[in-house]
Amino acid sequence: MTPGDTPWALPIAARRPSAPAPSPALQSRGVIVFAGLSYLFIAFAFSYLDRRFRGFGFESLLWLVWALLGFGAGAIHLKRPEGAGRTQWRVLGLLGFVLALFPGVALYAFPRWVCVALLIVMGARAATMRTRRDFYLTLTVVFAVSFMVATHYNADWSLWFYLGPAWLFGALALAWLHAEGVAISRATKLSMAIGFVGLSFLLASMLFLFAPRPPVLGFGFLPPGADVPGLFDKPAGDAGGAAGQSSRPDGGGAGPAQGGSQGGVTPQPGGLAQQWGRMLDHMREAARDRSVPQWQRSVIQGAVGVAQGWLDRLASTHGTTRPAGGAGTGAGEGAGTLESPATTGAARRLSLLDLLLCVALFLAAVLLFRYRYRIGLAAALSVSWLLARPFPAQSMWLSARAMTWCLRVRRHPPLPGQSVREHWSSLEGAAPMARQWLGYALESYCATRFGGVPATRQRALHMRQAVQGTCDLLMGAMPELGR
């Protein structure tokens, strides 16, 4: 442009903004799989709101099929040429449009109809999921629908059987996407994912038990330290003039009326153990709901039983009032007696033994994790000897796996994409005899694995002996030969 030109004299094409950069392509099918699982559980949560109409099982089956057709096809088509899956997306999209109009409009109010339409469309569009933009759009729909589900008037705490996994799989999908460009093995990714799940469960449990919770969004059966009823619960007052009833609201009226009738001792609202007891009573109410699936009720009953046992042990350890009875008494059916000093002392000794047992288990877990390759090496060589006669090929494979673990102990792990020959041959600093035995084991394994040489008992035993001798030299078992 010359100094005399003006900006409006430029051609229109030159003044147009540049096209946005294309979204990066997905590289791993794991991202699509985790996104599909998050989508599936949020669809289960959407249908769980209508469980009292006895259609939850059938609707869940439909969502499962729809997720498999969409996200399963997307995972298969990811490595295929551009355009794969478009026909399926058009067919599923047309079918989803028909389902959203009928019976969707007749079944749901407008906010829920919008959510079910979004779920149907995203499930169909998943067949062409290839870029990060598609993935982020899917997660946006998942969390938008989850917000509607969590704020619905039919939502209660049992909804977190589905909301929790949905959000967890969404977080795993994001973590898996972040790790796409990092050169780490699948085993490392899986172990990190398991650690993430365990840490998330631990933090969620601590927040669930100790943090104050508002009486909304399914949390509110017990706000610790407060006498606030749930958002849609009536306070448990003196409805019938029965003796011993309390006018205190407890977030659902699960226990105070029975407390006066059974023992005349009404627990005070401030005790943490009594608050947990009332929480367990409300959880038992969900376990008695016939509209909840049977497996879910069984899980709730088992969890409540374990929690009640810990609560009773905590009450006996501290010498506090224990409920009279078993299940259903934690909230304050509550006439109990103080533990005797002998019982309290025994409980404290038991608690100390439990603590020592936990410390011992933790130390054992640390030692097992630290020496896992040495233990796996010894176990693999032992099983390899046992399998040499009936299954020589499997025996040789175990010996090769033991050799790989031995090299890991020597801080020589395999690199991504590295073959067995490249990994074993690149070992540095080994003694000449160890390298000779390693070469024999390598040639024997490769000849059987890739060269078509039949696996026999003799070859399996010879390979095992070579691997055993190499490992002994590399780990310093025979220092006079390891020079």
Question: Please, could you describe this protein's structure?
Answer:
The chain is mainly α and 483 residues long. The protein is 62% helix and 0% strand. The chain is built from 18 helices and no strands. About 18% of the residues have low confidence.
Structural class: mainly alpha
Count of DSSP-assigned helices: 18
Gyration radius over CA: 32 Å
Spans of 5+ residues with little confidence (pLDDT < 50)? 215-270, 321-350
Distance between the termini: 76 Å
Taken from the alpha-carbon principal axes, the silhouette is globular
Mean pLDDT: 74
Helix content percent band: 55-70%
Strand content: under 5%
In N-to-C order, the SSE pattern is HHHHHHHHHHHHHHHHHH
Count every beta strand, where a strand is a DSSP E run of 2 or more residues: 0
Q: Describe the sheet with the most strands.
A: none
The oligomeric state of the chains shown is single chain
Short characterization:
This protein has helices spanning 12-15, 29-48, 56-77, 86-101, 104-107, 110-125, 132-150, 160-178, 186-210, 256-262, 272-287, 294-317, 341-370, 372-387, 392-409, 420-425, 432-449, 457-474. The chain has 483 residues and is an all-alpha fold. The model is unreliable at 215-270 and 321-350 (pLDDT under 50).
Question: Could you name the key traits of this structure?
Answer:
18 helices, globular, mainly alpha, 483 residues
Write the layout of secondary structure elements.
Layout lengths: L11 H4 L13 H20 L7 H22 L8 H16 L2 H4 L2 H16 L6 H19 L9 H19 L7 H25 L45 H7 L9 H16 L6 H24 L23 H30 L1 H16 L4 H18 L10 H6 L6 H18 L7 H18 L9
